[in-house]
Amino acid sequence: MDSPVGPLLLTAGPDGALTSLSVPGQRGGRSVQEAWRHDAGPFRAAGEQLAAYFAGELTEFRLPLRAEGTAFRERVWAALDDVPYGSTTTYGEIAARIGASRPAVRAVGGAIGANPLLILRPCHRVIGADGSLTGYAGGLERKTRLLALEGARPTPR
């Protein structure tokens, strides 16, 4: 689907739960496979909610998501779901939320970078401890645009 941050590729499992949302050129992102079946049905609600989000009318997605990863990654991804619209957090704060040790911050960053559900699972809200806009699988320009859309103001810690 088209969006203000460029084309979005959504995938879903047989049960209709979204399994990924990626963008062209995304590090570790998905690309259309020949064996895939195009069916707009599972994506109707996602399209409506994404359109409302980009219009500034929706602050929380209510969609069935099914991202599969290690238990550690799934804990990190669940912590991302708790970062409120319009705010930012740091990798260290995410590590603390899941009870990970200080040395695990790098692993937390790796799990965030592997988030298969960009925008829907708001990894764009995670910034560096110094307030810098570090890394984003979809590119820093998209991260900046998403944070601006939400009115988030990253501040140095």
From TrEMBL:
GO terms for biological process: DNA alkylation repair; methylation. This enzyme catalyzes only one turnover and therefore is not strictly catalytic. According to one definition, an enzyme is a biocatalyst that acts repeatedly and over many reaction cycles. It catalyses: a 6-O-methyl-2'-deoxyguanosine in DNA + L-cysteinyl-[protein] = S-methyl-L-cysteinyl-[protein] + a 2'-deoxyguanosine in DNA; a 4-O-methyl-thymidine in DNA + L-cysteinyl-[protein] = a thymidine in DNA + S-methyl-L-cysteinyl-[protein]. Transmembrane segments: none annotated. Residues 1-66 form the Methylguanine DNA methyltransferase ribonuclease-like domain. Involved in the cellular defense against the biological effects of O6-methylguanine (O6-MeG) and O4-methylthymine (O4-MeT) in DNA. Repairs the methylated nucleobase in DNA by stoichiometrically transferring the methyl group to a cysteine residue in the enzyme. This is a suicide reaction: the enzyme is irreversibly inactivated. InterPro entries: MethylDNA_cys_MeTrfase_DNA-bd, MethylDNA_cys_MeTrfase_DNAb, MethylG_MeTrfase_N, MGMT, MGMT_N_sf, WH-like_DNA-bd_sf. Residues 71-152 form the Methylated-DNA-[protein]-cysteine S-methyltransferase DNA binding domain. It is found in: Cytoplasm. The active site is at 123 (nucleophile). GO terms for molecular function: methylated-DNA-[protein]-cysteine S-methyltransferase activity. It comes from the Bacteria. Keywords: Cytoplasm, DNA damage, DNA repair, Methyltransferase, Transferase. Belongs to the MGMT family. One of its GO terms (cellular component) is cytoplasm. This is Methylated-DNA--protein-cysteine methyltransferase. HAMAP family: OGT.
